[in-house]
Amino acid sequence: MNDIDYDQKNYQFCMRIEELQEDQLNVKKEQxxxxxxxxxxxxxxxxEQQAYEFVLNSCETEERAFYQDRGDESLHLAKKxxxxxxxxxxxxxxxxxxxxxxxxxxxxxxxSFWKQKEGESSGT
Length: 124
What we know:
- By secondary structure, the chain is mainly α.
- It starts with a helix and ends with a helix.
- Helix content is about 95%, strand content about 0%.
């Protein structure tokens, strides 16, 4: 293998590693955004539950069942949304691990490539 081919192949390895690292960074940013959404959603859910409790404590007896049902429905939907955000986090974590494994694989290929070139150089 001549030096130009070697340099091109080495450049391809470096570019692939850089691309994987950028993808990892983007996944981490997305994970952080989901975490922030979870935190904001949790805060809003707590405020909403406090509002429902206030309404339940201050409404007429005849209206209580109506507001209780709305509060229960809201809580159910909030839990569903929270589960969806958790599932999104799990998928992002899987994607991140996959990218790390790919990077490790490319690094191993590059190291093997270097050793092969070293062997050719010392054998000449």
